[in-house]
Design goal:
This is UDP-N-acetylglucosamine 1-carboxyvinyltransferase. The protein is an alpha+beta fold. The chain folds into two domains: 216 residues, UDP-n-acetylglucosamine1-carboxyvinyl-transferase, Chain (Alpha-beta prism), CATH 3.65.10; 206 residues, UDP-n-acetylglucosamine1-carboxyvinyl-transferase, Chain (Alpha-beta prism). 32% of the residues lie in helices and 26% in strands. The strands form six sheets. Strands 21-22-1-23 form a four-stranded mixed beta sheet, covered by helices on one side. Strands 2-14-16-15 form a four-stranded mixed beta sheet. The chain has a four-stranded mixed beta sheet with strand order 4-5-3-13, covered by helices on one side. Helix 1 runs parallel beside helix 2. The mean pLDDT is 97. The protein binds uridine-diphosphate-N-acetylglucosamine (UD1) and phosphoenolpyruvate. The site of phosphoenolpyruvate has 10 residues, from helix 11. Uridine-diphosphate-N-acetylglucosamine binds next to helix 1, helix 4 and helix 5.
C-alpha cells in the first residue's frame, strides 16, 4: 500500500490540463451495453473506477480494447450475466449496469453499489423508475433482481433530484416501447453527455440538461464514436487549489460555464478569475475573504467540491459556513483538517470554519475521494509535511495527481507504507 507525502508552503504556478469527466465516463461505458456494434469513447480519464467498469463489461462477454485514453467496447456478444458481488461493490456507478442491461436484455442481477461513504445513498428512485417502465424489481441478499416481459414508456416524477436515477432511467427507457417522460430530472452536464452518446447510438432524447427529459423508445441502438466532456470536479479542485496557492495557474480543457457557482464564490473571496472558451486563469489574493457555501443540485454549488473548498476556507479571513444539502454527513474530512490545526466545528449539519488558521503538516487519512483531495490541498497549504493515507480513494477520481501537481511546482510524492503503518491504517 502507498501513501502520499506532501510538503506544503510553496506558491504554485503553471498550466494543468484536465482529463475527461469521471461521472460521465462511468455512465458512458455501461451505456455501450445497449448497442449492437462497437462503441468508441475518447478522452477517458486515467482513474481506477474505469478499470473496474472495463472488467465488468468483459465479465458479461464484452470485448474491451483500450489504447491510450480511448476505449472500444464491442457489446455484440454480451449476455445478461448476473453480477451480484465482487467488483460491483467497489464503485457507485456499477448501478448503471441495471438500466443498461434492463434496456438491452430485459433482465439483470446486479449487487448493490459501493462508492464514497457519504451517509445513506439509497437507490429507491432508480427502482421506482424501472418499475414504472414495467420491470419487476426485488432485492435478494444485497443484489437487485430486475425482470420485464417488455419495457413500456412511462411518466416518471423523481421525488428526489438524482443524477444516478436520471441516467439509469434514461438507459432503460431508450429501449422501451413508446414515450417516457422523466420529471424533476437532474440537470448535471454529465447527463447531457450521456444523452449525447445515446443519441449518437440512435436514441431519441429531448430535454437532457433540463428538468424534463422526453424519450421515445427505439428498437435498436448501434455503435458510434463519442468524445467525453472535461471533468468539472477535477477542474474545480485545481481551481480551488489555485485560489489558495496560485501565483497564476491556467486550468486548461475546462468548460467554465460548468463551474459558475464555484467561480462566483471565488470572486467574492477576492480571487482573480479570468474565463475564456476552454480555460480558466486563477490567481490567489494576499487576503482572502470568508464566504458561506451551500451545496445544491446543478447549477448550484456541487457537493463534490464542498470538501476541497473547506480546505480553502481555512485560509480566509472571517467565518465561513459550509452546508451540504445533498449529503448532510459529508464531513469526515473535518476531523482530519482539525489535526492540521484548522479551526472548524460541525454544528447542526453545517461546518463552521473560522479563519485564517496556519495549517500544520500531520498524518491524515482520506476517508473518501473528495476528502482525499481536500487533504492534499490542505497539505500543500500547510507548514511542514503531511502524510495522506487512503489514497486508493483519490485514485478513483484524479488522474496523474502527483505529476500534475509536480508540474505546478508542488513537492509531493508516493511512498510505500511500512507493515506497521498498514496495520494501523486497517485498524483505524
Ligand atoms: C457516479 C456519480 O455520478 N456520482 C455522483 C452522483 O452520485 P449519485 O448518483 O449517487 O447521487 P444522486 O444525485 O443520486 O444523489 C443525490 C441525493 O439524492 C438521494 N437519493 C438518490 C437516489 C435515490 O434513489 N434516492 C435518494 O434519496 C441521495 O441520497 C442524495 O442525497 O451525484 C452526486 C450528487 O451530485 C455526486 O456527489 C456523485 O459524485
Ligand atoms: C461521490 C463521488 O463519487 P461516487 O458517487 O462515485 O462515489 C464523487 O465523485 O465525489
Amino acid at each position: 500500500m502507498q501513501k502520499l507525502l506532501v510538503e506544503g508552503g510553496k506558491r504554485l504556478e503553471g498550466t494543468v490540463r484536465i482529463g475527461g469527466a469521471k461521472n460521465s465516463a462511468v455512465a458512458l461505458l455501461p451505456a455501450a451495453i445497449l448497442a449492437d456494434s462497437p462503441v468508441t469513447i475518447e478522452g477517458l480519464p486515467k482513474i481506477s473506477d474505469l478499470q473496474i467498469l472495463g472488467d465488468l463489461l468483459e465479465e458479461i462477454g464484452g470485448t474491451v480494447k483500450k489504447e491510450g485514453q480511448t476505449i472500444e467496447i464491442d457489446p455484440s456478444e454480451m449476455i445478461s450475466m448476473p453480477l451480484p458481488n465482487g467488483k460491483v461493490k467497489k464503485l457507485r456507478a456499477s448501478y448503471y449496469f441495471m438500466g443498461a442491461m434492463l434496456g438491452r436484455f430485459k433482465k439483470a442481477v446486479i449487487g448493490l453499489p459501493g462508492g464514497c461513504h457519504l451517509g445513506p445513498r439509497p437507490i429507491d428512485q432508480h427502482i421506482k423508475g424501472f418499475e414504472a417502465l414495467g420491470a419487476q424489481v426485488t432485492n435478494e441478499q444485497g443484489a437487485i433482481y430486475l425482470r420485464a416481459e417488455e419495457l413500456r414508456g412511462a411518466r416518471i416524477y423523481l421525488d428526489v433530484v438524482s443524477v444516478g436515477a436520471t441516467i439509469n432511467i434514461m438507459l432503460a427507457a431508450v429501449r422501451a416501447k413508446g414515450k417516457t417522460v422523466i420529471e424533476n430530472a437532474a440537470k448535471e452536464p454529465e447527463i447531457i453527455d450521456v444523452a449525447t452518446l445515446l443519441t449518437s447510438m440512435g436514441a431519441k432524447i429531448k430535454g437532457a440538461g433540463t428538468d424534463v427529459i422526453r424519450i421515445e423508445g427505439v428498437d435498436q441502438l448501434s455503435g458510434c464514436n463519442h468524445t467525453i466532456i472535461p471533468d468539472r470536479i477535477e477542474a474545480g479542485t485545481y481551481t480551488i487549489l489555485a485560489a489558495a496557492l496560485g501565483d497564476g495557474i491556467l486550468i486548461d480543457n475546462v468548460i467554465p460555464q460548468h463551474l459558475e457557482s464555484l467561480l462566483a464564490k471565488l470572486r467574492e473571496m477576492g480571487v482573480t478569475v479570468e474565463e475564456s472558451d476552454e480555460q480558466l486563469f486563477i490567481k490567489t489574493s494576499e487576503k482572502l475573504k470568508s464566504v458561506d457555501i451551500k451545496t445544491l443540485v446543478h447549477p448550484g454549488f456541487p457537493t463534490d467540491l464542498q470538501q476541497p473548498f473547506t480546505s480553502l476556507l481555512t485560509k480566509a479571513y472571517g467565518t465561513g459556513v459550509v452546508t451540504d444539502t445533498i449529503y448532510q454527513a459529508r464531513f469526515k474530512h473535518i476531523d482530519e483538517l482539525r489535526r492540521m490545526n484548522a479551526h472548524i466545528k460541525v454544528e447542526g449539519g453545517a461546518a463552521i470554519v473560522a479563519g485564517p488558521s496556519l495549517l500544520q503538516g500531520a498524518k491524515v487519512k482520506a476517508t473518501d475521494l473528495r476528502a482525499g483531495a481536500a487533504l492534499v490541498i490542505a497539505g500543500l497549504m500547510a507548514k511542514g509535511i503531511t502524510e495522506v493515507t487512503g489514497i486508493e480513494h483519490i485514485e478513483r477520481g484524479y488522474e496523474d495527481l502527483v505529476e500534475k501537481l509536480t508540474n505546478l511546482g508542488a513537492t509531493i510524492w508516493h511512498e510505500k507504507m511500512t507493515e506497521e503503518e498498514v496495520e494501523q491504517f486497517q485498524n483505524s
